[in-house]
Amino acid sequence: MSTQTEPANLMEAIVSLAKRRGFVFQSSEIYGGLNGFFDYGPMGVELKKNLRDCWWNDMVRRRDDIVGIETSIIMHPKVWEASGHVAGFSDPLVDCKVSKTRYRADQLFWAKVEFGTNTTSAPDAVAAHLNANDNVLGYVSALEDENITATLQSAAEGMKRKKHVQGILLPVQPRDFTEATADEVTQIPSPATGNPDLTPPRAFNMMFQTNVGAMTDASSVAYLRPETAQGMFVDFKNVVDTGRVKLPFGIAQTGKSFRNEITPRNFIFRSREFEQMEMEFFIHEDDDWAKWHRYWINWCKDWLLSIGLPASHISEYDHLKEKLAFYSKGTTDIMFKFPFGVQELWGIAARGNYDLTQHANASGKSQEIFDEATKKKFVPHVIEPAVGLDRIFLAVLASCYAEEQVTDEKGNTETRTVLRLSPRIAPVKVAVLPLLKNKEQLVARAQALYTKLKRKYPCFYDDSGAVGRRYRRQDEIGTPWCVTIDFDTIEKEGDTFTLRERDSMTQKRITETELFALLEEQVY
Ligand code: GAP
Predict the structure, then answer these.
(1) What is the pLDDT of residues 392-446, one digit of tens each?
(2) CA 523 to chain CA centroid, nearest Å
(3) What is the 3-state secondary structure (H, E, C) of 278-339?
(4) Distances in Å between the alpha carbon of 118 and those of 157, 170, 329?
(5) Bridge-partner residues for 275, per DSSP?
(6) H-helix or E-strand containing 456?
(7) CB of 425 shorter than 6 A to ligand 1
(8) What predicted TM-score, i.e. pTM, was given to this entire model?
(9) Does residue 225 have its Cβ closer than 6 Å to ligand 1?
(10) Are 75 and 230 in contact (CB under 8 A)?
């Protein structure tokens, strides 16, 4: 019998499991770590590879209209001038002059603490009746969290009321630091010191710079790519000329991207070195971009379900028209319910023909395609689904992690930690366990099965400790099935094993043929 329980702090539980079971380590941990960088351990690298392979197989290999490429991480610096990254790939940065802490202005929230005649009145209406200065107690600030209004309200309630201040505390109206006037900037407290020590926001370019070659002057400046997408645009003509592709078609790639994030946070959610999986889907300029945009939003959502993410955690967010770049026709983010709130997982942008046109203008090389039907040349438009592999990895860990109270036949209860990973992505597909390690026949049969399985599937041989303990170890790394070679295997007819299923913990007898058929069906 089992009952599911909620861990007290899901994020802490995931980070701890990730370390304990070899999924994710802090980078350079023995030197104290480096903020925003992570290493993937033996289990993590398998899970990540499986996620990447599933995406690649479904996005590229199983389709006739998409081809893959792999472009270099360091590209000609003019690529990033043409794409707009040199001038505009920045976040608003705020410094605390005293503590030297840095904040992203759009993640730093503040509110004016005001008193009015009653708490239900709208602040504007109340303000009209009162002398504002008499009723302003000061300012509060906090870093963005899931319930920033409540955080700021509670900070406001904690402020000491001055004698002359009249009325009842009004509900706070949170705003981010980019919305503060010059006067407000001088009054908003720094979250680090509690005093108004913050600088006005300034643009901070997030690209990592390096130098190519022996010279380290302006002429040798280059950048680590902040996205993989530009590789697809820059190689567009090469693919058209060599790839036997016809519109509509896509070019996809996976690979590392680098962003000098001001505030890397939430484990691997926002890091400085991460992996992207992006696809540029090129369409005719007269084609119905909205139809293709919807098509790719649906495709991405279905794909997330196919790797085992729960539909209940997935939603859509349409970027506001007035906040879109001038060339953008529309952007929809697929949002995911992470332990720290609902956040962007996958962005699907309809970018018109902006990128190819920019590169055509900057390089002087036409990016047009000839349309046989109209006998006209045109620059194709693009729909871009762009996702972070590490972010999907975190979504998987967060939604597949479970703790259960399990009671055995003797009435003993213990906590079982289990990762309910889909067999498609589980690092180990099946564990082979001889019941006893000193019974030659059991070991020989187990080894034979293990050797055969290993040729096709990642599997694990474990003969140490009680079988129950071995099951628990596999539960924690998300192995969908364990196969135990027991006395019935060698003594009874039929050469069957005990197959134990991870989620239900049910057991049944199975033959080798049936085991391979099960794996063939579930692991694809
Ligand atoms: N080419 C478009 C592009 O790069 P983006 O929204 O900046 O768009 C796409 O990034 C995806 O990459 C995001 O939806 C997210 O999944 C992932 N991503 C972006 N920045 C990241 C970071 N610092 N750490 C981890 N993943 C990140």
Answers:
(1) 999 999 999 999 999 888 888 999 999 999 999 999 999 999 999 989 999 999 9
(2) 23
(3) EEEEEECCCCCHHHHHHHHHHHHHHHHHHCCCCHHHEEEEECCHHHCCCCCCEEEEEEEEEC
(4) 15, 7, 45
(5) 256
(6) none
(7) no
(8) 0.91
(9) no
(10) yes
* 3-state secondary structure labels for all residues of 162-203: CCCCCCEECCCCCEEHHHCCHHHHCCCCCCCCCCCCECCCEE
- Whole-angstrom distance, CA of residue 99 vs CA of residue 197: 9
Which amino acid is it at 313? H
Q: Residue 386 C-alpha to ligand 1 middle, in angstroms? A: 7
Among 489, 486, 488, which Cα is nearest to 467's?
486
Ligand 1 in contact with 280 (CB < 6 A)?
Answer: no
Mean pLDDT of the chain: 93
Residue 359 near residue 367, CB atoms below 8 Å: yes
Expressed in angstroms and rounded, the spacing between residue 227 Cα and the centre of ligand 1 is 8
Residue linked to tokens 């349309």: 371
pLDDT digits (tens, 9 = 90+) for 243-295: 789 999 999 999 999 999 999 989 999 999 999 999 999 999 999 999 999 99
Q: How far is the CA of 270 from the centre of ligand 1 (A)?
A: 8
Residue nearest to atom 2 of ligand 1 (CA): 386
Which tokens hold the place of 277?
């999986």
Atom of ligand 1 nearest to the CA of 261: 23
State the distance from the centre of ligand 1 to the C-alpha of 378, rounded, in angstroms. Answer: 29
Q: CA torsion sign, 152 to 154 to 160 to 162?
A: positive
pLDDT tens digits along 73-92: 999 999 999 999 999 999 99
Q: Strand 496-501 vs strand 507-511: parallel, antiparallel, or unpaired?
A: antiparallel
The CA 388 to ligand 1 mean position distance, Å, reads 5
Cα separations (Å) of 424 from 55, 118, 345, 418? 11, 57, 20, 16
Going by their DSSP bridges, the two strands 249-258 and 66-68 should be labelled as parallel
Distance of alpha carbon 358 from alpha carbon 95, whole angstroms? 34
Contacts of 189 (CB under 8 A, 6+ apart): 138, 139, 140, 141, 195, 196, 197
- Nearest Cα neighbor of 19 from 4, 33, 3 is 33
Measured in whole angstroms, the distance separating CA 9 from the mean position of its chain's CA atoms is: 19
Other Cβ atoms less than 10 A from the Cβ of 423: the count is 21
Q: How many other C-beta atoms are found inside a 10 Å radius of the C-beta of residue 163?
A: 4
pLDDT of 70 over the 60 cut: yes
User: Quick check: CB of 229 below 6 Å from ligand 1?
Assistant: yes
Residue the block writes with tokens 């693009």: 382
Binding site membership of 52 for ligand 1 (Cβ less than 6 Å): no
